[in-house]
Amino acid sequence: MGANLFQAKQTLTVGGKSYTYYRLDALQEQGVADISRLPISIKILLESVLRQYDGRVITEEHVRELANWNAENPAKSEVPFKPARILLQDFTGVPVVVDLAAMRNAMHKLGGNPKRINPLIPVDLVIDHSVQVDAFGSKEALEFNIAKEFERNEERYRFLRWAQTAFDNFRAVPPGMGIVHQVNLEYLARVVQERTVDGEQVVFPDSLVGTDSHTTMINGVGVLGWGVGGIEAEACMLGQPLYFVQPEVIGFKLTGKLPEGATATDLALTVVNMLRKKGVVGKFVEFYGAGLSNISVADRATIANMAPEYGATMGFFPIDQATLDYLRLTGRDESLIQLVEAYAKAQGMFRTDDMPDPVFTDTLELDLGSVQPTMAGPKRPQDKIFLSDMKKNFEAALEKPVSEGGFGLADQRDKTAVVQYPDGQKDELHHGAVVIAAITSCTNTSNPSVMIGAGLLAKKAVEKGLKTPRYVKTSLAPGSRVVTDYLERAGLLEPLSKLGFDVVGYGCTTCIGNSGPLPEEVAKAIQENDLLVSAVLSGNRNFEGRIHSLVRANYLASPPLVVAYAIAGTVDIDLVNEPLGKDENGNDVFLKDVWPSNEEIQAVIRQIINPEMFKKEYESVFNRNERWNKLDVPKGELYEWDPNSTYIQEPPFFEGLSEEVPDIQDIQGARVLAYLGDSVTTDHISPAGSIAPSSPAGQYLQSKGVKPHEFNSYGSRRGNHEVMMRGTFANIRIRNKVAPGTEGGYTTYFPTGEVMPIYDAAMKYKADGTPLVVIAGKEYGTGSSRDWAAKGTYLLGVKAVIAESFERIHRSNLVGMGVLPLEFIDGQNAETLGLTGREVYTIKGLSNDLKPRQTVTVEVTREDGSSFTFQALVRLDSDIEVDYYRNGGILQTVLRNFMREQQA
């Protein structure tokens, strides 16, 4: 920073204070490019390379190429992006900090300065993924769950407290404060940043990357941000740019306004469905049009949050008047708000209804007035269902074959189960019974319109005498304490509580599988009768096996609809035409009778929510949790690893690391560890949810003296590679074609033909010196930005993944771990090539001369000794990725670079 390329360095005066900024119009004046109609998301990237130009890592050519971004055909050149800050949550954040601590140890062993391993830009970690819904349906649930959370996770939390003292530029928001993305939206994000550089106060757009795919939520307030793997985030922290090819930008035009009865959730699910059909994987989506003036920042954030579900890198909403209004509502300083407005207008980044439309790669359009009440499921977030079609959709899914996305229960349509309660009461359950109803997740709990809507619906329902069936596990997990404040002030917490929706915690609960156990008698009835039960949640993910192992049909819905389905107790109901229940006089009560109007909701928002609520909750956010404050904190710049710990272990990624860079070599004689189908998600690959006692991870923990009731979750043990590698590819719903007839983490160990857990087979292959490959279909790695999906793959000995296509983050994570991603060339896949997965594979053409996106030859030797070859595309998309691959990963590259710099 500080170079004055193209005379772009200028002064901006706001409120009597002068700032240095890097004016984009200078590029136009200097004849570099016409930037006037660039998408605003591209302008933000352009400002970043212009401001941080140094002639080495970021060159003049980078600036020129991005300034000349071609909407129709973006150049294949790289963008070196250095974000303003990094955002972590604790599930993905703990392994990031573990890796940094291990890098310090490796640096020390190589004779370098361990303090060199330190975040160079601000890093915020919000602990929000560890609370589970153990207790529910009572006012004591919150305190019980928080106490349980600390009991389970104290060792991890002590480690994070150490990180606060050991690393500069690192802050941690304690447990119980809120969900990472909502805390970011309501408090951490500034929209524009200011920083002192060489004695000057420089102002520039706020931007970030985060180790959670739903980091994209921040795009709702005009901050550029998206999810990356933990490995990439670590590299960014250590001063490395994030490299990616110039993106296509899809313009999404919004017109009109939402009709009565439609919510922001309905809009978000509609957008997800439209963009999935459009095909936007790996692209930017930017929203524009006059319809933006009719949706709030909270509504925008709901849509931006679900970018991973529609496959885009992000869904961006530019700064406009609504952004300024939101900053005021959430208690930001007036001086900051004035700076945001002045800076955005000076840079041509402030949206108005009458501004010329940017030029996009492609566009699509939605009239907000056409949005209807919508849900998604039962297995994927992009599978949109109108509320009016819900009953027939569920019944069709019930009978449809599993191969077509259904449940294959046509011959068991009338099956029932009886729940026998300890007090002698009984409930009869049918297929579709709602056993989990959760107002949860970052997507919706940040939005006052749907949260107030849920509270008003609950109030009307209670007044009508409606109740929730006993077998429904209800929970309310607000995204921040502000939500509880405004629900309480509006008198809506009490009616929610009467329907069982008591506050259970402030964190990412049911949506990530922290739904906790079902009541024993309910679980028993489901298991003994193999009943297909359902969950309805206000989340963003409903993949198989994610929400709860006993719940196979999972539906995403707005918070008001979550309350409605909790009352109905089943998804096998037409809520448009069938009654929710009966009032105290025996009269039918329909959904329309308790659904609040848009004006009712807005009246409560106007009356109740004010900036002081946000200021009060966030002024002590870093030290408000007394349990956190009292933790015993380790000392020292090097972490003292405890060999007996089952939570935190030094990972083996840097074992035997030398300063010399190894050669790239062919992969010879590889066996197939897993042969998988289409849409295999990181939920299938990465360890997540509960740990089964009989699983390799469960067996390992028991060998260390950990009892099954103390297992906690895979997510909480991400700092221990021994647990995580044993849980990789171990999802209960994964189907491996080389272990036919099995479900779960099994494979065939071909030297003996024995079917065994994937981990056990991988260790046998490792002992044999046999490299491994994974074969997969389309969209491999769709889902959360889970670094352990790549780390676990690497630790199991997988050298390459051959797939039809990859999800953006997972492909990048594989490269970051030194695992080679290969794609079948167009028109080919494992099936057309006749692959069975029982063959031996050799990948030829890998050398130090490897080029981005070149083709290599895969030689396949069948069991009968015959062989054939096919070509595959190397998905190393840039020169820097080739460098990462040769070094064995991003972190090894960074470590070697640091050592070279120290010796220079």
What does this structure look like?
With 904 residues, the chain is an alpha/beta fold. It has three domains: 85-370, Aconitase, domain 3, CATH 3.30.499.10; 386-401 and 415-609, 2-Layer Sandwich (Aconitase, domain 3), CATH 3.30.499.10; 667-686 and 728-887, Aconitase, domain 4. Helices cover 33% and strands 18% of the residues. It is built from 31 helices and 34 strands. A seven-stranded mixed barrel has the order 26-29-30-31-34-33-32. The longest helix has 26 residues, at 141-166. The protein is globular. It starts with 8 loop residues before the first strand and ends with a helix. The model has no long low-confidence stretch (mean pLDDT 95). Its cofactor is [4Fe-4S] cluster. Residues 69-569 form the Aconitase/3-isopropylmalate dehydratase large subunit alpha/beta/alpha domain.
Short description:
This protein has 904 residues and is of the alpha/beta class. The protein contains 31 helices and 34 strands.
- Domains counted in the coordinates: how many? 3
Shape: globular
Helix content: 25-40%
Number of strands: 34
What radius of gyration results from the CA coordinates? 27 Å
Strand content: 15-25%
Structural class: alpha/beta
Low-confidence stretches: none
In CATH, the topology of the largest domain is named Aconitase, domain 3
Arithmetic mean pLDDT: 95
CATH architectural name of the largest domain:
2-Layer Sandwich
| Name given to the CATH homologous superfamily of the largest domain | Aconitase, domain 3
Number of discrete helical segments: 31
End-to-end distance: 23 Å
CATH C-level class of the largest domain is Alpha Beta
Pfam families: Aconitase, Aconitase_C
Keywords: 4Fe-4S, Iron, Iron-sulfur, Lyase, Metal-binding, Tricarboxylic acid cycle
Function: Catalyzes the isomerization of citrate to isocitrate via cis-aconitate.
Protein name: Aconitate hydratase
